[in-house]
Structure formats: structure tokens, C-alpha cells
Design brief:
The protein is built from 2 helices and 3 strands. With 62 residues, it is of the alpha+beta class. The longest helix has 10 residues. It is globular.
Length: 62
């Protein structure tokens, strides 16, 4: 997993979501719909992505 990244894009609004899901989005660095960020491929980030997967598009980047 050395050097791998995840390209994460928020595609659904965080309005009306429970606090822990909004916190996961902030932890990933996402603030707005259609914003894309690259995060390290770590177990912590994978867990946050898995929790809010219904709101995201995720791609693996080398």
C-alpha cells in the first residue's frame, strides 16, 4: 500500500445526515458537492470512505 492514494469525490449533499457521517466527510477533507480530494490509502481513511460510501465516488490512484 506504499504510495497509493484514493481519489474521493462527494456526489451527495451532507445536509440532513447524522453527525458521524458529516464528521467523516470533514476528516476526508470534503466540504462541497463535486469536490474531489486525494487521500492516502490507509485503513483509517478506508473506514471513513466505507461509512459514507453512499455519498462518494472513489477511485484508486497509483
Amino acid at each position: 500500500m506504499a504510495g497509493k492514494k484514493l481519489k474521493v469525490t462527494m456526489v451527495r449533499s451532507k445536509i440532513g445526515r447524522i453527525k458521524s457521517h458529516r464528521d467523516c466527510l470533514r476528516g476526508l477533507g470534503l466540504k462541497k458537492i463535486h469536490q474531489t480530494v486525494e487521500v492516502d490509502d490507509t485503513p483509517e481513511n478506508r473506514g471513513m470512505v466505507r461509512k459514507v460510501a453512499y455519498m462518494l465516488n472513489v477511485e484508486e490512484v497509483e
